[in-house]
Amino acid sequence: MPLVRIDLIEGKSDGYREQVGEIVHQAMVDCLNVPKDDRFQVITEHSKKGLQFDPGYLGIRRSDDCIFLQITLNRGRTTEMKQRFYRAVADGLHQQLNMRREDVLISLVEVEKEDWSFGNGEAQYANSPR
To answer: In whole numbers, what is the pLDDT of the chain averaged over residues?
Structure first.
């Protein structure tokens, strides 16, 4: 169960935010073996001062359209899977929303299966081979 947090500068339409979420989810399904119905996303808009970043860190020129994606997911994906995922997200956002690839910042946070509770105060995956 990945938990996806998408942060962007305020002013984008509902449709734009929804499409960003769909692109990210489809890339997780295609590249990270996430089940199609395993979709949990928080999409938050911020004022320009509320989303701060270095516009030239590592020689990458970012614009005010920079978005942050932080995805918490179970440990176990290979480096190659992650690289394919990063590329799929950046390419999908570029192709479908004309977003600059330079404006896509992604952070994966890997956790153990027992670190999740889906409700009822239980760790459903703690004893599960999933």
So the answer is: 93
Domains held by the chain: number: 1
Nearest-angstrom CA–CA distance, 85 and 23: 11
- Is the residue at 124 inside a domain? no
Catalytic residue among 2, 35, 55, 129: 2
Tell me, yes or no, whether 125 lies in a domain.
Answer: no
The enclosing domain of 73 has a CATH number of 3.30.429.10
**How large a percentage of the chain has pLDDT more than 70?**
98
Q: Using the predicted structure, report yes or no on whether residue 130 has a pLDDT greater than 70.
A: no
User: How confident is the model over 57-102, as pLDDT tens digits?
Assistant: 999 999 999 999 999 999 999 999 999 999 999 999 999 999 999 9
Q: pTM to 2 decimals? A: 0.89
Please indicate, yes or no, if residue 79 is contained in any of the structural domains. Answer: yes
Residue 5 CA: distances (Å) to CA of 20, 69, 99:
11, 6, 18
55 is catalytic: no
